[in-house]
Amino acid sequence: MKTKDRIIATALRLFNEEGEPNVTTNHIADEMDISPGNLYYHYRSKDDIIWQIFLDYEKKINQVLTPDENLNYTSMEDMWFYLHMIFEVISEYRFLYRNLIQLMNRIEFLKRHFRRILARKSQTALNIMKHLAEIGSLNADDETIASLADQVALTATFWLNYSIAIYDDNFDEEKKLSHGIFQVIRIVAPFLNEEDKENLNQLSAQYL
Amino acid sequence: MKTKDRIIATALRLFNEEGEPNVTTNHIADEMDISPGNLYYHYRSKDDIIWQIFLDYEKKINQVLTPDENLNYTSMEDMWFYLHMIFEVISEYRFLYRNLIQLMNRIEFLKRHFRRILARKSQTALNIMKHLAEIGSLNADDETIASLADQVALTATFWLNYSIAIYDDNFDEEKKLSHGIFQVIRIVAPFLNEEDKENLNQLSAQYL
DNA sequence: GTCTATATAGGGATAGAC
DNA sequence: GTCTATCCCTATATAGAC
Predict the structure, then answer these.
(1) 3-class secondary structure, B192
(2) What's the CA gap between A98 and A85, in Å, rounded?
């Protein structure tokens, strides 16, 4: 693994663990046993590093948000799986979400790109729910569906923060993921038909 | 107004406008036309200032969260009014919400106290909804009600951030408030009886 | 590509005069 | 209570040798 890539990997790990504002370029270099000068040979600035990490994130999340031919988004298993992919990416780049407003404020590009991603997330949620309504899994009028999609997007975006704010930061990462997925599904659950609701209960029992 | 109080007022305004991490003690002193030394005569540290502001916030939010004898929380007008009070306090101290995780991380006391407030908010939401269910305004089983209360608390906490993330930061403060209130009410709306739903539509039309 | 050494800047905070 | 002057520290970033 080249130094250039190791910097990204190390920075990402430290940002997630300590929070981006608490991680200096010196920390990153120190953690890797290279000199700060070396780090700055590869990246012009700290924001440049963040920007490169963001591009990785953007690529991954866009992949997940691009409709997958192998998923038909009809069964609750598919939904769970799909949400799991989303939350996995969020979790991998969680430092972005933890200091979202500040980062958007500081890095103009990041603001514009992140906004676009959020819009795509909302839209995807809406599409899936419309589809569920069409096949009769979900009973709700258009207005309610729109509201649910917003709710889902907001919850997916801030669930990790909420969870940190309420509970403690240091409990099992996988548990926290499942918890978030469960939380999102609970939004939609009351509008599902009985069969799917039952499926859901079994899935929750399995993962929580 | 004494200097000690002016510092708090100025700091709060700047924190809200610029974001707490972007406001230095020098900025605050400069804005007030006093010397940094003077500022440090009144408060030992920047975190001390933040802490004092937080105490004001805590007092106000606890007042709102304490059941008011003059409100019976039955009509949608009451609900709107009540939510408006909550969102008003949140908006007045919005810098706390914008950098919540980082602040909780840095100031241990703030973490503990804020957590308690969040718990109270959830609990209050739950109580109100149970009450609405009892008097027949709200049709939902206990599990759904619990889920709705969580949703409401999460939305109230992060709506401002979500709104900043999606739209722009610089649009009418009052509009943003109403929008948040509306967002919270939309969560509950599908479970209301027809009469209350109709009331709600009229209220929304009036404020949005 | 990597190191050492260092420049630069800014923020938090204090000392001591008035 | 308030000011001026200043200290200390840390963070980002660069220069130049190897």
Answers:
(1) strand
(2) 19
Question: Count of CB atoms within 10 A of residue A183's CB?
Answer: 21
Quick one: B186 and B106 in the same domain? yes
Q: Please compute the mean of the pLDDT values over residues B31-46 and round it to a whole number.
A: 98
Q: Does residue B136 sit in the same domain as residue B202? A: yes
Residues B184 and B109 in one domain: yes
| Cβ contact, residue pair A101, B21, below 8 Å | no
Q: Looking at the structure, tell me whether residues A198 and A120 fall in a common domain.
A: yes
Same domain, A12 and A58: no
Domain of residue A100, CATH code: 1.10.357.10
Taking the whole predicted model, whether its pTM rises above 0.90 is answered as yes
Using CA atoms of A183, A90, B122, B17 in order, give the dihedral in degrees to the nearest 10: -150
DSSP 8-state class, residue B22:
G
Residue A104 touches partner B, C-beta closer than 8 Å: yes
Helix (H, G, I), strand (E, B) or coil at B138: strand
Q: Write out pLDDT tens, residues B20-36.
A: 999 999 999 999 999 99
**A177 close to A88: Cβ distance less than 8 angstroms:** yes
pLDDT in tens, B131-181: 999 999 999 999 999 999 999 999 999 999 999 999 876 778 788 888 899
* Residue from A17, A90, A95, A100 to probe the interface with B (highest B Cβ count within 10 Å): A100
Q: Which residues of chain A have pLDDT under 70?
A: none
Buried b (16+ CB within 10 A) or exposed e, B199-208: bbeebbeeee
Q: Which of B36, B20, B110 is CA-nearest to residue A102?
A: B20
Query: What angle in degrees, to the nearest 10, is found between the helix axes of B25-32 and B46-65?
Result: 80
Q: How many CB atoms lie within 10 A of CB A3?
A: 13
Is B1 in CB contact (< 8 Å) with chain A? no
Same-domain check for residues A11 and A57: no
Query: Maximum distance among all alpha carbons in chain B?
Result: 62
Q: Give the residue numbers spanning the domain of B173.
A: 51-207
Residue in B106, B143, B147, B197 to test binding to A, most A beta-carbons within 10 Å:
B147
